[in-house]
Here is the input.
Amino acid sequence: MKNFNNKLALVTGASSGIGQAIAVELARQGARLILVGTNEDRLAESKQQCEAAGAEAHSYAANVADYRLMQGLAEAVKAEHGVVDILVNNAGVVMSGLIHEVEMEDWKRLIDINVMGVVHGCQLFVPGMLASGSGHIVNMASAAGLIGQPGMSTYCATKHAVVGLSASMRYELSAAGVGVTTICPGYVQTPIMDSLKLVGKLDTPKVRERVAKDTQRNNLTAEAVAKRTLKAIRKNEAFVTIGKDAQIAFYARRLAPGLLDKMFSR
Here is the structure.
């Protein structure tokens, strides 16, 4: 996919952060946008930003965890706009807690949104791409999908699932002309970090301060992630790490696992 002119792109979690930034960048490069999110007011803001960039944009309120709602969305999009050319499965939530302190409701919430939300998007929009013989899927994972981080077992489990799912999908769909890219950013300066849920012994001001410092130190913006993501789509890259922390995690796990273990064991 050499350019995005007149391509129909659907972005989940488009009401803020990385999803909003990707949508706006796609709008600047000529794509038509389908914006999906749960916060209608913020979704309207994203729509305005895309239109200000000169793009046609439409917003739909839907929770990616709800298959029936997503099924209705897919039917409406196909009837009103046609086949989706680019699918960005970006919607996600993050939390931190020790394995024995995370409640089942939180496990279910993260799996339903972070994993099944991606599955729902792929199940519903991949058939149209296969029928047209083209398209590209972006699954937003995380540096947490590359390594196991203490206090992040719930989130890491869901992002490892996205990494594995995406790798398998790429092999399955490549012969049909459909590309799949996994994006693994590190700490990004977005509202998702402001709403980070901490539970049990990790629910302390000290932990929140540490997360804020790590995010600031990484100096990674949603706009930078968006630009790198669009580059990955154009080049049909399989896997991309974004941010110093994500790149260090990727190489440390492979080249110096003992060093990483020592650091985390502290």
